[in-house]
Each structure stands twice: as structure tokens, then as C-alpha cells.
User: What shape does this take?
Amino acid sequence: MPIQYYIYFSLALFSIGIIGVLTRRNAIIVFMCVELMLNAVNLLLVAFSKMHHGNALLNNPTSTAGVEGQLFVFFIMVVAAAEVSVGLAIIVMMYRNTHSVDINFLNRLKN
Amino acid sequence: MDTIQILFFSLSALALFSAIMVLVSKNPVHSVLWLVAVFFAISGHYILLNAQFLAIVNLIVYAGAIMVLFLFVIMLMNLNADAEPRKNWMMKLAGVVSGGCFLMVMVSLVRQATELSGKAALMKTGEIGLIKNLGKALFSDFVIPFEISSVLFLSAMVGAVVIGKKD
Assistant: This one.
């Protein structure tokens, strides 16, 4: 499959995530759109690692080039899991103080 | 058109449709369920690329753990009623136009890139996505980031408990 198809698909998913962050006001849905953007980047990293691996296989049939890209995706997932736990705790705290999850309450970060 | 292409395009269409439905759903619970559908489609893409370990980790960590955490929080706050105030349509239009401009600029950039012409991702073959090769690299070259990520998890756990504590 040509690498351009993967790039276009990931760009479309990333743009949908950007539009969601810019247009929605529910903090949880904004957070979910950030997860969507992370997944678009993950898919693109895996596609590029397979492209790199396919090029390296032409010279060396036992090459493991490209394994770093997939491990990078693994570490992105690890960091995303930690980020989600802290972020949802912050949203719960915000809901407890303001009884709303509208992100316009946060535009001054004070009071 | 062979099987790989049919699977690629159908999974892409499923992912894009579900991603749009995440945005337009009024009920946050429906948004979470559509996002789970996006993650399943992306796991299908990983299987097509023979990245089997990442496909399973994506399902377990994202669709299984993170999305359940989102569902817990939404149901804890009783948000499943539509409580979002109406935003004026000019702001929505501005958001859609700026996202579309980003997409247009990046697509034209990729179309002009001569380095990418003729390159293809290796489908359904290749050994690097298997857990054997990933584990060898993870526990030899990347063992220090792996250990640091466990410290990150510990600090995230302590941080979530401290932030969420009632006082």
C-alpha cells in the first residue's frame, strides 16, 4: 500500500481531532479529541516503520530496522495512559468546584 | 482490487465516519462508544501492517482501559444528558475552516514531496511487529526508558489520587 494513503488517512483523522478541540466546549469531548490525534500519529509512526523496514529488507534479509518506531508508539501509549488518569482527575476536580465541564470556565485559570 | 486494498479502504472509511460521529454526537456516552469504534478500526490497520503486538496493546490499553475510565467519569458526573450550551455558529464555522485549512496545506505538502513518491508500507509481512523482536529491543536497547515509564506511572497514580482527593 503506498505510504501516501496512510499519510492522507492520518491527516484526515488528525484534522477531525483539531476541529473537535476547536469547536466543542465539553472538556471530556475535547480530551477525547486529543486522544484521537494521538492515535492518528501512532498509526503514521507504524506505517513509516514498516516503510523503513521494507527498504532495509532489500539489502539485508534479516534486518530488524524499524523496530524503534513501533517501540516509540508503545511509549506514546504508556504516556497517554498516565496523562488520561491525571487529566480526568483534573476534570473531576473542576466539575466538583463549578458543577460544569464547560471549558470557558477555565479561560482565566484564576478564581 | 485485492483483499488488502478492500480492507484498507473499508477500515479507513469506518474510522473516519466514527471519528466524525465522535464530534457530532450530543451525548458524551455516544461519543465514547464511537471513539471505541475508531480504536477498533485503527487496530485493524495495525493487523494489516503486521504490527500484532501494537494491535493487541491498542485494544487492551485504549479501548479496554482508557475508554472505560472515560465512561466511569461521565457516568459519575451524570453528564449523559445534553448539558452543553449552544455555541454560536460563527465560532464553529471558524473552527471547521481552520481545521480544513490545516488539512489542505498538509495534503498539498505531501503531494509535492518527491521523497515519498514510490515508497510503500510493507503489508502483512515483516517480522518487526511480532512480540519476540519488540521484546528483544525493549529489554536491551530501551530498558532505561522502560524503567523510567514505571516511575512515570507511579507519579501519575499518586498525582491522580492527590488531585482527586476531597478536601
Observations:
- Chain A touches chain B through 74 residues (CB under 8 Å).
- Residues 3-106 of chain A form a domain with the Helix Hairpins fold (CATH 1.10.287.3510).
